[in-house]
Specification:
Elements: E1 8-13, E2 18-25, E3 29-37, H1 39-43, H2 50-72, E4 81-87, H3 91-108, E5 112-116, H4 117-128, E6 136-141, E7 146-153, E8 156-162, H5 168-178, H6 185-193, H7 218-234, H8 240-266, E9 270-274, H9 281-293, E10 297-299, H10 303-306, H11 311-323
Parallel strand pairs: 1-4, 4-5, 6-9, 9-10
Antiparallel strand pairs: 1-2, 2-3, 6-7, 7-8
This protein binds 5'-O-[(R)-(carboxyoxy)(hydroxy)phosphoryl]adenosine and zinc ion.
The site of 5'-O-[(R)-(carboxyoxy)(hydroxy)phosphoryl]adenosine has 20 residues, from helix 5 and helix 6.
């Protein structure tokens, strides 16, 4: 039996290619975290196919939710709320989770709390760091987003910088495809880079004029493509591992330097990583070293909580729930939902 004061939330995430459900207690304790990945399926096509993603979500979602409840040892009667990602993401994929959450909310008479996907990624940091509280600086690096934010309070974000073009994860995925590593690019570049020389090729570290916290990754991506063309024209060998390691170093250096500038300028000596790219081993190491140099506390979720999952949605939903946020049965998927918007 749960203590009456405890808040148990069933969380659902289906914004891209993972069908996920979790039961989270008081925003920080994960009782179950079930993820059904579609990666193998989309690998056949070299990337996520939205229509296939939606159909797979429909097939899997009931099983995933049942498994999450079973693993947590709870039934719908034990829950206090249902949390669900309602944006941003693929509209058809989001709709599956939103419709499911609304159905459960209606049938089990549970409050419904819609969650912003990126707020979920940020909140993943609360799960393993019980002492972490706002304010802190968070670098959000996912497949669709690259944001540098000050988390002023739970659910209160001040966006310091964002990408002007590709997201960091998108750049990893595109470069991986260009050098023949295929999908999903980020983890493959991470792995193959361990065999490569990060100083083999110098790729540009882009700065955005008048916006010191903004990012731009299209230049480094083009530089990799130009380098590949140059090698082919000169008949030079293309060393996959060296290019991967050099590209990864260029991207990570920019991410680390912007994040540390924010830490210094804002005078907030707490830095957290969030999003799929936050599981990158080089980024984690470089950021940790920088934080040690700058006497800044460093937080990063375990890799499984960095990539898409529902436990992070449960953490975010808890703080929204505590603030009194409730959504009606008219909640809709919002594919381009902005952070901080309701
Ligand atoms: O946060 P996420 O799971 O989904 C989105 O919300 O977009 O992020 C997925 C992105 C993909 O671009 C993937 O290639 C990248 O995160 N990623 C990585 C690593 N693991 C996942 N990028 C670099 N290194 C990794 N180890
Ligand atoms: Zn994500």
């Amino acid at each position: 039996m749960e203590d009456k004061k405890d808040v148990l939330i069933l969380a659902i995430e289906s914004s891209c290619d993972e069908t996920a459900a979790a039961v989270v207690k008081n925003g920080r304790e994960v009782l179950s975290n079930v993820i059904s990945s579609q990666i193998a399926l989309h690998t056949l096509y070299g990337g996520v196919v939205p229509e296939i993603a939606s159909r797979k979500h429909i097939e899997k979602i009931n099983y995933v939710i049942k498994e999450a409840l079973d693993q947590a040892g709870v039934t719908l009667k034990d829950l206090d709320a249902v949390g669900v990602t309602y944006g941003p993401g693929l509209v058809g994929a989001l709709l599956v989770g939103v419709a499911e959450a609304k159905a459960i909310s209606y049938a089990a008479k549970l409050p419904l709390v819609g969650v912003h996907h990126i707020e979920g990624h940020i909140s993943a940091n609360y799960i393993e760091n019980k002492d972490l509280e706002p304010p802190f600086i968070c670098l959000v690096v996912s497949g669709g987003h690259t944001h540098l934010v000050t988390v002023r309070d739970y659910g209160v974000y001040e966006i310091l910088g964002r990408t002007r073009d590709d997201a960091a994860g998108e750049a990893f995925d595109k470069v991986a495809r260009a050098i023949g590593l295929g999908y999903p690019g980020g983890p493959k570049i991470d792995k193959v880079s361990k065999e490569g020389d990060p100083d083999a090729v110098h790729f540009p570290r882009a700065k955005v004029e008048d916006a010191p916290y903004d990012f731009s990754f299209s230049g480094v991506k083009s530089a990799v493509l130009n380098h590949l063309n140059g090698c082919r024209m000169k008949g030079e060998e293309i060393v996959q591992a060296d290019i991967a390691a050099s590209f990864q170093k260029a991207v990570c250096e920019v991410l680390v330097s912007h994040a540390m500038d924010a830490v210094r300028d804002q005078g907030i000596r707490k830095l957290a990583l969030a999003g799929g790219v936050a599981s990158n081993s080089t980024l984690r190491r470089m950021m940790q070293e920088a934080c040690e140099r700058e006497k800044t506390a460093f937080y990063r979720p375990s890799p499984i909580l960095c990539t898409d999952n529902a436990a992070m949605i449960g953490a975010a939903a808890y703080y929204e729930y505590r603030k009194g946020v409730r959504h009606g049965l008219d909640l809709n998927a919002v594919p381009n939902l902005r952070l901080g918007e309701r």
